Amino acid sequence: MPIFQQNRTMFKTPFSAAYWRCAMKEFRSLRSLVFAALMIAACIILSKFSIPIYAGLKISFGFLARALCALVCGPVTALVFGAAEDTLSFFLASSGEPYFPGYMLTTMLGTLIYALFFYRARVTVLRIFLAKLCTNVMNVFLGSLWSAILYSKGYLYYMTNSMVKNTLMLPVQTLMLVVLFGALVPVLYRMGALPNQAERRLAFI
Prior knowledge:
Layout lengths: L16 H11 L2 H17 L3 E5 L2 E4 L1 H32 L7 H18 L6 H26 L4 H37 L14
Antiparallel strand pairs: 1-2
Helix pairs in contact: 1-3, 2-3, 3-4, 3-6, 4-5, 5-6
Protein name: Folate family ECF transporter S component
Organism: Pseudoflavonifractor intestinihominis
Pfam families: ECF_trnsprt
């Protein structure tokens, strides 16, 4: 029996050793690895599309596939997914910017954050908001550091710009994840890809 169909009521918290044992088994599950590979492909495709809003501010879609992979595959797979996705995205869909391993670290940590909030947990609007808030805060501080290292302007310049953009995008990105999870969580549960906490539809708290 696949790991995601076993022990449906267990391993709900990252503070449990059993949670991490389950995450390791998920990493060795062929179906989970195939799903993660599909999400990498989705990220690469989605990176080619964005909706410009104003002055460099745009709606992108790659984070949706990252969050979905984290939800289904867990934190261990999420770290490997982040490294593979960022590297492959650079070589297959680079926009001309130099390769920098710091951005890979940001992707890995962002996907890990999603996994810690969503994997084996009852997904709610509040959890989605908190997960997106944490990833956006991380993007502000780490992304600004990488930009300051690579380019000419100082850290505070990049941090200010990034803080404004991430603050404005937070409600939009949260809503996008709410819509995505609201549609797919019941489907994934019926497919056996999610444990028992996903049986009910998306809740607020």
